[in-house]
What we know:
By secondary structure, the protein is α/β, with parallel strands linked by helices. It has helices spanning 33-37, 44-66, 85-102, 111-117, 162-172, 179-187, 211-223, 228-257, 272-284, 302-313, and strands at residues 2-7, 12-19, 23-31, 73-81, 106-110, 130-135, 140-147, 150-156, 261-265, 288-290.
Amino acid sequence: MYVLGIETSCDETGVAIYHAEKGLINHVLYSQIEMHSEYGGVVPELASRDHIRKLVPLIKQLMQESKLSAADINGIAYTAGPGLMGALLVGASTARSLAWAWNIPAIAVHHMEGHLLAPMLEENSPEFPFVALLISGGHTLLVQVNQIGAYQLLGESLDDAAGEAFDKTAKLLGLSYPGGPKLSKLAEQGHPQIKFPRPMTDRPGLDFSFSGLKTFALNTINASDKTAQNKADIAAAFQLAVAETLAIKCKRALQQTGLKRLVVAGGVSANSQIRALLMDMAIKEQAEIYFPRPEFCTDNGAMIAYAGCQRLMLGQQQGLDIFARPRWPMSELI
Ligand code: KG4
Ligand code: ZN
């Protein structure tokens, strides 16, 4: 069974083909980052228009490179939400129309389920059940995953998502959009001398709050003489605070659930210090830890093709309506 996956929820146009037995056949990604960086963040209308320009040519390229034709494809999975409405509609309407034309089912995929299942694309993939830490630009979630569709929310961010905190702090440090990876690079030259808070770790529970770190960064920057070294030190201290906070909460989640398997996914899981600290914690907890390869941490079509294929094999598919839901709590998934 070949499934075409389409991701257009934000600023990346991603397409991929996943085969139920052979695994990932091919994937292609076009990033709009350069276009948005001029504006310091994603401009939704520009994002939608660019998805329209790029999506069909990318699908053609993917099919040609994979040496597959429409007759080979058994289903089309698309990101139906959460995300930007206009951007989602491009993927959803293209997927739904192709599925209609090719007379095959369409499957609406939850973007965060895609992230959550991305480590399944690796050779060494986790078995169910596991704890998942999802850290992206829009969400920070701790979820107990019992099987596909059986997700129990353990904790979430009450304000900024981890990626959002990275991007906003990066902006304060004068770095261009998207700031997460740039802040991480700057942090390599710094020393975490200033002690940032580890938010919400001094009380029980698995929720997060990252907006205070951004404010702390702002106050620290204003009080410093803004040299390159000071900025690098602030970046390093900020990143360490996020990494340690995530490690403390993941340790708690493993202990609370009694599970010994942790999956970490979403754009921020590409961060090497966060990966390193979470790995140290997992070793101490005698737990297994799984990450997607860095290119599948951020948005991509492969994770959507994979999630769609699993859903299709469970007999699920959507009707003829074009399903796009900008806000879509993961707890509503079954
Ligand atoms: O999962 P993703 O690609 O998109 C959403 O679903 O939001 O995540 C994007 C986020 C951005 O905030 C970006 O700055 C952050 O992931 N990010 C990073 C790194 N790479 C991407 N943050 C910190 N360190 C990185 N290496
Ligand atoms: Zn994402």
